[in-house]
Amino acid sequence: MLHALTEICQWARQQPPWEQETLRRILACDPFDDADYAALAEMLIEGKAAKSVDLSIFETPDATAIGPRPLLVSISEIANVNALADGQTIEFGPALTAIFGCNGAGKSGYARIFGSACFSRGDREVLPDIFEPGSEAVPQRARITISCEGKPKPIEHALGKPIAELAGFYVFDSTCVATHLSKANTLSFTPAGLSTLQDLVKHTDKVRALVNGQVESANRSHDFGALFDAPTAVAEQIATLSAKTDLVALKELSRLTADEEVRVAELERELAQLKLLDVRKATRTLQTQIGLLDTLIAALPTIDAGVANERLVELKNLLDERKTRREAADRAGAEQFAVDGLQAVGSGAWSEFIQAARRLADAESASSDLYPHGNSRCLLCQQTLSSDAVNLLHRLWDFLKGEAKRLLSECDRRISLRRTTFESCTAMCASRRVQCTG
Fold first, then answer.
1. In 3D, which of 92, 85, 225, 76 has the Cα closest to residue 155?
2. 198 CB-near residues (< 8 Å, 6+ apart)
3. Each residue of 297-356: pLDDT tens digit?
4. Which residues pair with 145 in a beta bridge?
5. What 8-state DSSP symbol labels residue 156?
6. 315, burial (CB in 10 Å: exposed 0-12, middle 13-18, buried 19+)
7. pTM, rounded to two decimals
8. What percentage of the chain's residues is helix, strand, coil (to nearest 5)?
9. 3-state DSSP assignment of residue 162
């Protein structure tokens, strides 16, 4: 007597390859996603050209032969399951294994792992370690080892996905008891392997729906009218394409005139030139130059105000005024210091000399004793100063504080301000010109 799964595999050999592949994925417990359905749809479209699938590994020749029953050996390498500690292993005996402990020791946590991996009508949800931040993103896993004919077989269990090898293990817990006592519990029996046909129908229907959608999309009529700016003989022929279209006339319309061939050659040259250009780099350069030009336009009123003709005239007048005031400052009161035999008293050199002398005098002055005083020495010859020499120096210091000097200093300050403004405007113009042309 043949096993039901063997009969299904033999029946599948008479079906198209895409259905064979669908059955193979179901029997191998492989998941289905959009890419898998798309690949199966390609096999359906290929038809007989697709390669047949070998299903012999899923056949069970003798239904009366009962193979060795698997035994549960251990559970270990648990990660992110409740608050169970890492590195723990529970080993199971061949008959009965009792696990005991106080509340919160983790007994239910281990039971939930088996509920998610085996057959159960109870609690299949396994929570991560809620005391660890970000535990929801960490994969939950465990290693369940079973023994078949005395050979251990470790199974890596990703929680949330049942394990085909553990489908014969039944798990009962407190939730399961309430389900059996309070809810409908209809008993049913399905021969092993027949549920595979239900899954086959479900998945093949999805593949057929995908192919039908592609066929429907391919059968839609095309509108080429948008490709033509005006009604022409070519546009009319394209709009009325059918099995009755005159192919000779259509081919004749496809011939280019001499002018059209020249235009096509010109377009090809333009395209070749455009391909040689780094369009992105040129675009970035132009955008940068546009930004610089916008900045220059915004600065033009300031530049115009700084370098306008009236500003230049004003600067020239200030320079003339400075020259006049310097001469006045040099002359003001200088006659009182005239001495026979000295020709440069009151000149610019003389003025610079006494200003330097005043700065040195300030450096020699103590906090409470200003230079010069009765016991001071000459800053140049180092001889002790007479009372007349001290008075002369004090008169020179007073001369430096005069109104003419103050006016000259004010004029210098105004000229410096105008120079700074003018230099800033010219530098701004030069910078924008170099960047834009560079």
1. 76
2. none
3. 877 777 666 556 666 677 777 777 777 766 666 555 666 777 777 777 777 787 788 788
4. 74, 154
5. E
6. middle
7. 0.34
8. 55, 10, 35
9. coil
